[in-house]
């Protein structure tokens, strides 16, 4: 009962945030009026300054982190533009007042953004993670709920009730954690669940019970892992990849089993003939005689053995080819060395001959 009353209190209090508006003290209002009267800037300059600052700080960012200040800012600019449109000199001071108020709103909005990032750091970081996971597209209703709750806490800070916002952050974190887990489950298991459902529509529980059990068990374990280690993205990816493989395998097995149970005798015979033809095509490709016929399982085993033998043979041939290439390279190097040696010997002989014929050229 106490928990329910606490929850109702939070709901009422947060609902009040949605209808709250910022109010300025009399001293703040007086300061604004004085600044507007003393300002030497034209309304055009103030509008340019406002647009430039808004562009720098970011409309979307400020609107999220300070909704009340940005709403007030928007109203002030609208009022200023309406007064400027009258082209009456008497309205210029009032237009300046609204524009300067709008600029102050932007400053307060930015400060509120920094306050949120400081005091609600965990919630802010988690919200960013949810957007990275694309929760807004995958789980729109739950994401809207989490965003709304976060906005309520932001508004509390904007209204000056920072401690209350901090106290309520843990409740928001729980909502965000649940959303993150459900988003990850949808990302990593949705395809596997789809294949399992398709398999069940093909009577997989009757025609492929073992494969069905294996796929369901893998999905259950992956879901459990996501709940317990939702930040282990590598582990989640590894487990979900295996689960998806088993689910797809189940679907194709169920599909074939369903055909066997629903096809006519002629269609079943045709399928079996196609299976035998497939084995024959493999034998033909690897140049093995098709002169003998055995049962399909025996042919499968023998064909696999032949393929493995061919693979070993190809590996040996590849080694021989590599040896041949290496031999050619070595032969080329040997020939090059022989030519260099021959040239060196000829040079020595030429020098000895010159010494004998023209000795004076070699005297020092």
Could you characterize what this model shows?
This protein is mainly α. Helices cover 86% and strands 0% of the residues. It has 15 helices and no strands. α4 (59-65) crosses α6 (92-119) and α5 runs antiparallel to α6 (92-119). The longest helix is centred in the last third of the chain and has 62 residues, at 296-357. It is elongated, with a radius of gyration of 41 Å. The chain starts with a helix and ends in a 7-residue tail after the last helix. 23% of the residues are buried. Mean pLDDT is 84; it is low at 1-16.
Integer-rounded radius of gyration: 41 Å
Average pLDDT confidence is 84
Q: What are the secondary-structure elements, in order, as H or E?
A: HHHHHHHHHHHHHHH
Name the poorly predicted regions: 1-16
Give the N-terminus to C-terminus distance in angstroms. 120 Å
- Quickly give the structural class: mainly alpha
Question: Count the helices. How many?
Answer: 15
The main pleated sheet reads as: none
Shape label: elongated
């Amino acid at each position: 009962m106490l928990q329910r009353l606490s929850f109702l209190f939070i709901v009422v209090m947060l609902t009040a945030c949605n209808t709250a508006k910022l109010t300025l003290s009399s001293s703040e209002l007086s300061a604004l009026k004085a600044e507007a009267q003393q300002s030497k800037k034209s309304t055009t300059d103030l509008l340019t300054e406002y647009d430039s600052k808004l562009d720098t700080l970011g409309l979307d960012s400020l609107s999220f982190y300070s909704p009340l200040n940005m709403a007030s800012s928007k109203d002030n600019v609208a009022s200023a533009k309406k007064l400027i449109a009258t082209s009456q000199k008497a309205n210029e001071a009032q237009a300046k007042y609204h524009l300067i108020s709008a600029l102050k709103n932007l400053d307060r909005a930015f400060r509120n953004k920094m306050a949120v990032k400081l005091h609600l750091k965990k919630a802010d970081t988690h919200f960013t993670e949810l957007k990275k996971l694309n929760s807004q597209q995958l789980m729109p209703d739950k994401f809207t709920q989490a965003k709304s709750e976060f906005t309520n806490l932001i508004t509390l800070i904007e209204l000056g009730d920072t401690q209350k916002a901090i106290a309520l952050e843990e409740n928001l974190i729980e909502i965000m954690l649940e959303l993150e887990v459900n988003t990850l489950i949808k990302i990593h298991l949705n395809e596997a669940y789809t294949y399992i459902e398709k398999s069940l529509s093909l009577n997989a529980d009757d025609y492929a019970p073992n494969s069905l059990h294996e796929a369901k068990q893998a999905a259950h374990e992956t879901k459990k892992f996501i709940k317990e280690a939702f930040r282990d993205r590598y582990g989640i990816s590894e487990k979900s990849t295996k689960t998806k493989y088993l689910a797809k395998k189940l679907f194709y097995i169920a599909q074939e089993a369903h055909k066997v149970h629903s096809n006519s005798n002629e269609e079943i015979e045709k399928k079996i003939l196609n299976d035998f033809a497939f084995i024959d095509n493999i034998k033909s490709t690897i140049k093995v005689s098709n002169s003998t016929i055995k049962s399909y399982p025996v042919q499968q085993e023998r064909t696999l053995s032949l393929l493995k033998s061919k693979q070993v043979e190809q590996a040996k041939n590849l080694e021989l080819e590599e040896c041949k290439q290496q031999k050619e390279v070595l032969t080329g190097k040997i020939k090059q060395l022989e030519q260099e040696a021959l040239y060196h010997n000829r040079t020595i002989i030429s020098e000895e001959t010159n010494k004998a014929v023209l000795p004076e050229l070699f005297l020092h």
